[in-house]
Amino acid sequence: MFFFIYSLTSFLIYLIALPILFLFSLKDKYKDSIPARFFLKHNTPLKSHGVWFHACSFGEAKAIKPLVEKLPKNSLRMTATTNTGFSAMSEYTEESRYLPFESLLFFWIKPQKALVVMEAEFWYLLFALAKKRGAKTLLINARMSDKSFHKYERMRWFYGKIFEKIDEVYAQTEKDAERLRRLGAKNVVVTGNIKLAQITAVTKTLVKPEALLLCAASTHEKEEEIILNAFLALKEREKEVKLLVVPRHPERFEKVSRMVKEFAEHQNLTWQKYSNSESLQSDIVVVDMLGELINMYAISDVVILGGAFEPIGGHNAAEAAQFGCKIISGTHYFNQKDIFDAVEGIAIVEAKNLSQELLGHAQLKQTQIKNKSNIAPIVESLKDVL
Questions:
Q1: CB–CB of 162/183 below 8 Å?
Q2: Which of 53, 64, 159, 288 supports an S-S bond with 253, CB 3.0-4.6 Å?
Q3: CATH numbers and ranges of domains, the chain
Q4: What's the whole-number mean pLDDT along residues 211-217?
């Protein structure tokens, strides 16, 4: 009865939303994803009898690489919901697609040996239909932040229905495991955060400027302004210091570039886009290319990690910590508590105190990773079905 009611509701929502979806599909940001997800344009079903991985974002898609590398390439099937996630998934196999909206999965899903879903993609019909058609269903890297848990607990009956369709759950921490069990999860194993199983390596060696180099990493709306002002305060004292600005989302590259240009001209500083020149000799460089952040970390002295000066949830500090960078983060890192706990030496500050913290950069500690994760149980479970 729940399956029927949920499916009917999902279909009605889909019909009601069609006009709005069509209008959104005309925007550049959604011109590929919405037609593929909601109208199945150029979105044929995945080949059957493989291991199907689903992730939402670019970071999640990159995080599954250690698992992907341990499986036969011809068994790989991939889906994502965002443009950047799809781009990353496509690097693993040609059998990569945008995940259709739930109502369309009835016509789209073919039998697979396993469905592996990253973190918090709780789509009932995704798990239910995959399981009905023979797939072993896994939720991996599962987490449940303080904020999320209180919201999910109020809907425990609903999430219990989802967990009925999930065979195995691999949690990041014991606390996550306990919370997931309270929501109805079964066969829960703690494996740590798989983002620490194989941290992204540099793709090319850059020449570091002969100066203190700051990296404003994975920044979001409003954060660049805070960081630019803090940089200016340090620049007045240390004339040679340079700043790399790496926005989190590619659709903001142009907006951030305009902001930096205006700021630089007003302060009589030099600036450049990385896509125009890789010299890194300007006072401020906007890194407007995907996949370059890891290379910037490798040469940076101090990393100002975005996503936590606004209530976003933070980003992966381990990528910078592997190089021993000094790291400054805001206080809103609630989605990355497990990784922050695994990294020693991160300075946590309120946004209003960033300038003061940056001025005292000489007293900051170099970071280091205290522990990694164990993906062996997940690999073993997947190899059992191959």
A1: no
A2: 288
A3: 7-197+374-383 (3.40.50.11720), 213-369 (3.40.50.2000)
A4: 97
